[in-house]
Design goal:
The chain is an alpha/beta fold. 42% of the residues lie in helices and 23% in strands. The strands form five sheets. Strands 6-5-4-7-8-15 form a six-stranded mixed β-sheet, with helices on both faces. Strands 1-2-3-16 form a four-stranded antiparallel β-sheet. Helix 3 packs antiparallel against helix 10 (318-335). The longest helix is centred in the first third of the chain and has 26 residues, at 17-42. The two termini are 53 Å apart.
């Protein structure tokens, strides 16, 4: 950067734009004065005062000088002046964090070892957790055999909750439980670049994806932490299917035996350890949402944001922009006849 007194400029070459501003204003001035002189060739000064509200030559020149000054100050602002030797600290914590909820919607989430079942309880707790994330962008991905984006990252929490209410075991279409694919889908949903990013994974951990650990490593490499909430019983529970027409309930069977779904806490712990996140063994008990926020979510978001603290020079472009604005206002006032004294 080129230094001038106590000011430095990021783009000193833009000073050449001042010549363009000078030529532009000189052209405008010449055109307006020519138009004024041509009118004088047809009308006497007395008739001009009666028929037109024509500005004096001095006011025309003054107006264009003010416009030139405004453009020159704008050029200075676009050169990005900065205070030499002065810095300020900025952090991404000043902007919203991105929290992507990844919800298991496989049929194992219909197990009734929680009330009324794992999926219904998870949806209620997600909605309550979102209510504690004021100012943060939230998104939702449902998954079973494959991930299904339900809500993109948004600050509109009402829209998020409306999308959440539509989620059921048919949202992801394909059966099974592939946690790794869900994590990859969440990573694709985050915008590129720096920022505090967090995945909140809610599942029973009954994973059939052999590449889940690879997906967790990809999240770690991308700087995304994972908080995993494990729902259900580690001893196992049957899966109850409810007929939407009659309300009749049946137990999910395979080869003549009830399908037993167990919370795989060990698998979820490995995921969170790889990303330096946190595992919350909710099990079949009520989730302490305040504890999750204070002990896990907020510290992770805050740490991710604080890791991006930058020290930058103090920007000075606001002052020339302000001067440019003031000169333009004065030029408009002069053009409108402010302070005009007609010269015969």
């Amino acid at each position: 950067m080129t230094d001038w007194l106590d000011i430095s400029f990021d783009y000193p070459q833009r000073a050449l734009w001042a010549w363009g501003a000078l030529v532009f204003v000189a052209g405008l001035l010449a055109l307006e004065l020519r138009a004024r002189d041509r009118l004088g060739a047809f009308l006497s000064p007395a008739m001009q005062r009666r028929l037109t509200a024509q500005a004096s030559r001095g006011r025309i020149v003054a107006k264009h000088v003010l416009i030139l000054g405004a453009l020159l100050f704008a050029v200075v602002a676009m050169m990005r002046p900065k205070a030499r030797g002065k810095t300020e600290t900025v952090s991404s914590s000043q902007t919203a964090a991105d929290v992507m909820f990844v919800l298991d919607t496989s049929r194992s989430m219909l197990a009734e070892d929680t009330t009324p079942n794992r999926l219904a309880r998870a949806k209620v707790e997600i909605a309550q957790l979102v209510s504690r994330l004021d100012g943060q962008r939230v998104g939702l991905i449902a998954f079973a055999g494959r991930p299904a984006p339900v809500c993109p990252l948004t600050l509109d929490h009402a829209f998020f909750n409306a999308a959440l209410s539509t989620v059921d075991t048919n949202t992801a279409h394909r059966g099974g439980t592939r946690v790794g694919e869900a994590i990859k889908g969440a990573l694709r949903a985050f915008p590129p670049g720096p920022g505090a990013k967090l995945i909140v994974l809610i599942t029973d951990g009954d994973d059939q994806d052999p590449y889940t650990q690879d997906a967790a490593k990809a999240a770690r490499d991308a700087g995304v932490k994972i908080v995993a909430v494990g729902l259900g019983s580690e001893t196992g529970s049957t899966i109850t299917l409810t007929d939407p027409q009659t309300g009749a309930k049946t137990t999910l069977m395979y080869d003549g035996k009830p399908v037993i779904s167990k919370l795989d806490a060990a698998a979820l712990q490995k995921i969170t350890q790889l990303t330096e996140g946190a595992y919350i063994p909710a099990g079949t008990n009520a989730v302490d949402l305040d504890s999750i926020m204070e002990s896990h979510v907020r510290p992770i978001v805050r740490a991710a944001a604080d890791a991006q603290v930058r020290v930058i020079p103090v920007e000075m472009f606001l002052w020339p922009l302000l001067a440019s604005f003031v000169l333009l206002v004065v030029a408009l006032w002069v053009s409108a006849g402010g302070g005009d004294r007609r010269i015969p």
